[in-house]
Design a protein that fits this description.
Strand content: 25-35%
Shape: globular
CATH class of the largest domain: Alpha Beta
CATH superfamily of the largest domain: Phosphoenolpyruvate-binding domains
Radius of gyration: 17 Å
Number of helices: 6
Strand order of the largest sheet: 1-2-3-4-5-6-7-13
Helix content: 10-25%
Number of strands: 14
Distance between the termini: 33 Å
Length: 249
């Protein structure tokens, strides 16, 4: 078994319920739309996820974050440098997301100086580079899930405003016939990789504090959590190791 801390990133109420009920999960990244009074008893395990795009909702988001802070939530994720100031204003312990693109020691020190308490490193790094980075704060990496290929403002299915349904089941097809899932939030759309990143059985190769399991269209997440909790190797269709072992070409 690996000694690395496991965290879950969820999109749906069903995933959230399973993750919070699992002792192997130390923290859960939770979209703000799913947070509220029923989660109060789990507040110390929750890391709130504000919208990734703030230009059309920053004032509204700030008020919602302030209300959730009063309700007892203490941690939230910064997707960008702009999120850092927002979370400081609302009194949160700041966790850094992988979109901050932390790829080296200089960036890690800069983010730590900005008040970021832990960082999800860029998934474009190799294992060797991850292990060589100076770590002034806790660091982690994405160890499971369908990684986003792009973040859009318009939904390619509806050719318009995102529907806000994270599990609508829609997808687009690339020129090779790969099915790319589409996940809408309130004001952005993620287009996901057709292959699933799986690193179970290899967690001990990463010299970090935590690993993030990113759940998108899964309905039963407990078998995946068990695989990672025991660090058991397992094969699956459409499996990828991402860029961790081959780097960016």
């Amino acid at each position: 078994m690996s000694g690395i801390e496991l965290r879950a990133w969820v999109y749906t109420p069903e995933q959230l319920e399973q993750a919070l009920g699992c002792e192997d999960i130390a923290a859960v990244y939770v979209p703000m739309r799913l947070a509220g009074e029923p989660l109060d008893e789990y507040a110390e395990r929750v890391i709130l996820l504000p919208p990734e795009y703030l230009a059309d909702c920053e004032e509204k988001t700030e008020q919602e974050l302030a209300d959730l802070r009063k309700a007892g939530f203490t941690r939230a994720l910064a997707h960008t440098v702009g999120h850092i100031e927002l979370l400081k204003r609302t009194g949160y312990e700041i966790c850094g997301g992988n979109r901050l693109n932390c790829t080296n020691s200089v960036t890690a020190r800069f983010l730590a100086d900005c008040g970021v308490r832990d960082i999800i490193l860029s998934p474009e790094l190799t294992v060797r580079r991850i292990n060589s980075i100076e770590k002034p704060v806790k660091t982690g990496f994405v160890a499971y899930g369908r990684l986003p290929l792009m973040l859009n403002r318009r939904c390619p299915i509806r050719d318009g405003k995102p529907c806000g349904k994270p599990n609508c089941g829609e997808a687009i097809t690339d020129r090779k016939g790969n099915r790319l899932r589409v996940i809408c939030s309130d004001n952005t759309v993620e287009i996901l990789n057709s292959d699933v990143l799986m690193l179970n059985g290899r967690l001990n190769e990463f010299h970090t504090d935590f690993a993030v399991l990113r759940f998108t269209d899964e309905t039963d997440i407990l078998p995946i959590i068990e695989l990672y909790a025991q660090d058991k190797p397992a094969e699956a269709e459409n499996l990828t190791r991402g860029l961790y072992y081959r780097g960016v070409k």
